[in-house]
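User: I'm putting together a teaching handout on how multi-component assemblies are represented. Below are the sequence lines for each component of a complex, exactly as they appear in our records. Could you produce the 3D structure of the whole assembly as structure tokens, so the students can see both representations side by side? Please keep the chain order the same as the input.
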Amino acid sequence: MSNWKFRLQSAYATVTKGCRHVPHKPRDPRGISHSRLYHAKTFFTPLSRARAPQILVASSAAVAGIAALILSASSQRKALAESEPPQRLIRLHEIHQHNSTSDSYWVYHGTSVYDITEWVPNHPGGEVILRAVGGNIETYWNIFTIHQKQEVYDILEQYLIGQIDPRDLVEGKAPMDDVDDPFKADPQRSDTLVVRSERPCNAETPEDQLGTFITPSNQHYVRNHLWVPDVKDGDNHRLVVELTDGTEKEYSVAEIRNNFKHHTITATLQCSGNRRAHMTAEARATSGLQWDIGAISNTQWTGVRLRDILHDAGLSVDMLPEDAKHVQFVGAEAYGASVPAIKAVDRYGDVLLVFEMNGKPLMRDHGFPLRLLCPGHVAARSVKWLNRIVVSDEESWSQWQRRDYKCFGPNEGSKVDWDEATSIQETPVQSAITSITNISKNRLANSELAKVYGLEEDAVKVAGYAMSGGGRDIVRVDVSPDDGKTWRQACLIDDESKGSKAWSWKRWEIAFAKHDVAKHVVVKAIDESYNCQPESYEATYNFKGNLTTGWHRVRVSDDGGV
Amino acid sequence: MSNWKFRLQSAYATVTKGCRHVPHKPRDPRGISHSRLYHAKTFFTPLSRARAPQILVASSAAVAGIAALILSASSQRKALAESEPPQRLIRLHEIHQHNSTSDSYWVYHGTSVYDITEWVPNHPGGEVILRAVGGNIETYWNIFTIHQKQEVYDILEQYLIGQIDPRDLVEGKAPMDDVDDPFKADPQRSDTLVVRSERPCNAETPEDQLGTFITPSNQHYVRNHLWVPDVKDGDNHRLVVELTDGTEKEYSVAEIRNNFKHHTITATLQCSGNRRAHMTAEARATSGLQWDIGAISNTQWTGVRLRDILHDAGLSVDMLPEDAKHVQFVGAEAYGASVPAIKAVDRYGDVLLVFEMNGKPLMRDHGFPLRLLCPGHVAARSVKWLNRIVVSDEESWSQWQRRDYKCFGPNEGSKVDWDEATSIQETPVQSAITSITNISKNRLANSELAKVYGLEEDAVKVAGYAMSGGGRDIVRVDVSPDDGKTWRQACLIDDESKGSKAWSWKRWEIAFAKHDVAKHVVVKAIDESYNCQPESYEATYNFKGNLTTGWHRVRVSDDGGV
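Assistant: Of course. Below is the structure of the complete assembly, with chains in the same order as your input.
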């Protein structure tokens, strides 16, 4: 094992040298993509460092990346496979020996046997896959149903080495392993949520709830990478804080709640995939969940400042040590991410360890009993079911930090060099239309909108949300009733948002004379650094479909509604 | 006077009420635009508060705004003028009485006499115009030559009240006043700078200097709103710091240099008008200096932290008092601006009081002996020739804070409600092409670019700069050799930039096979919050032409050069 590791690390070292200056460097002579070496490293080194529990892990968002990573190796394999079709018969006990304690990893699917040793480092779900090696992979795919797609089958096919010996088959079938389903303890959820995937659960806030400033907790969009940890005794749930010198301090949630000052802030969380379906529709295919406009919600969060906890744990928060560059977080289900240390300790950054949402204890789907809230950053950094914090000189080594949540150029396919791209932290300016409604001139009469926009006829009211990252306030929302030919400024609603900066979405509304409204209504927002949204989706296209912020265009139906 | 002020302030009060919710509120019943009332207020209140010296002031960038502001009043005037052509003859001594001590202000131009009382509050140059009232305005326009344009003459014409009595004319001419030319002490400048206006001096860094990481001091672009103060004894130049409770502390530049820790950071300053000429060319007419790509430069600045000075002056910098929301700055020539207090005291904000650039004392054009450096913000906030700092609950009342440096919607003409718009602070992501050069395959051979981009034929090398506001680093630069059809990622050059965040521009370069290069090469940059530049100029068009960041398109000449 240590040899493996050494070889990979030295290879990795050569890779990173001067990479900033050389975005498109030649591939490794052995024809192995840097990403593979890189992730082999993340696989062998960091998890031990981060002491992640050895449990079943998989990432829905990440799976799509596999095909690309595997390509270089698979082509070699394919050649091999074609030259010598593997007719070899293999006994079950032989497969069982190639388990996680072995140095070559086999699995079977149907009656076919595969040696996936070479691929294991690339598993987007991390080392969890070792739980499946030596046995039947199908069992796990029946739980993580996200694997049940052609692109995953194709990858596996590259590693075929033989067939199960008929003597071990029962009525022509290989035995299924008996594995506990980690999702069976997932909470009950509101049936008004718009479900995008069942296991893990990913669901949008319904459109009729996107018009309220504070999203009801049970209507908050759900973005789970795995199952929901079932923490019975929230007060005694433990959080360990580790500093760069290795010193650790442990807290129970009760201690955190009782011994530190409470802060309540209002903050919007948005998934990096919000509006991904629009990029797919207006540009090209993207991988990952096809979210519409509802992977975003706004909440009043109550907790203690991360800054205060880190200070209590012994970190010099007002003069960070040289090696305190990032703060890493690990959740109870092994999800990991990190944020820059400067953000973590910023007095006006409002980074909280949260135990309440909208005045009630956190819902299980949203991190009970303790989660991070890093306002102004992509929601993927606000780690739920928090059980470990590590102050470090490097980013989290989780694939959710180093892989999934990055963007690439419009020209770049999935064969990218992941460590060239910057992890998404603060998000760009965003907006969406959440409702378009007809208003008769009688109902409109004397309303504020009628006054503001000087309307005395039948009108169309358009409303929506706008927000930006980093606490940058929305300064203007331009809305076009005629597909971008002409614009007017929407009214920005002065909702009260608690916190040092503008962490909440800004609701907006505008009305047009019905006869001025053409087929498409369009919105674009401008934030206080005067960044604006891109007009076309092509300009910011990335194969992951992250951070879709192209102007939101909505077709107006003939009766004026959406 | 106090009546005036009271009336204006109460009117203003009604205006601001709920304005956030009502961007397009009905105009004041008296038909006076809010902006006029608003600026009347800035004229009578703040300057006294800020104790700005009573000296000659004018703003080049602002002049263009006059016509709009004046419209409502002028139309009334015009009606008047047409109904009763002013044939009245007026004696010079009568004009002299209507000076700054009077409550109605007259000037003459040629042999015509004007009562400009109603307009004075709108003078973009502020109260300075009072220096001219009671006399010959022509004298001042010969100094501030920027006034010598039809739009300014037209405004004046609205206020005609009569003609100078022939008895006071010498050979049919009225006497010129004798006024000291404040520009005569302006420094000598490099003749390689690209001059956009002489008085005040505004000049670009030449293109061949935009490719160096650190701009030579004498090649740094010059952006002066007025003349250059002639400070003989820099060490004894005084800086007064005033806190919200009115307490003041005074420092000499020598004390600042000797008693506080020195810091050196590398930071790019960019004028909000940089690339304005591109918006004019690709969208519509804009007001203000028509800068190309050279209103930007990068420098090593040395000074002390504003945070340390404010702390020494008695401000609680780690826990700002409620009423410390902005920090205002006043220069020796009366230029004024402010930045948010959070930025001013941020440990990682690197806001400095600077006395050195590139290891030498500040050049006079750049603020000798002391200037503010607010990295990551528009250069207009980095006040030069600093002599006063005021911690306040409100922004600077100068027209450079409340007027010139704002943006509006593409649909909004010059009749805007200035206080609806947010002052520009942090700037959006930006990039420009600074050079396009042919490289023969022989010269290219074995070069790094050849390796990176796999080139073995004659090539075209494209280089430029990219930057963003708020210290947000540039994470990717996409360059298209064919007017946006296809893209490749440029190499980002790893120049060493000192400071807590990415305050410097990022130089980039890329090469294409000559046969792949079409008529236009295009660049767009992406910053670490994944904001991108707008494709079209129309999307971000604003009549002031501020913050032009549309994709920079450069036509490639047939010989491959720019």
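A couple of points students might notice: Chain B touches chain A through 62 residues (CB under 8 Å). The first helix of chain B runs from residue 2 to 16.
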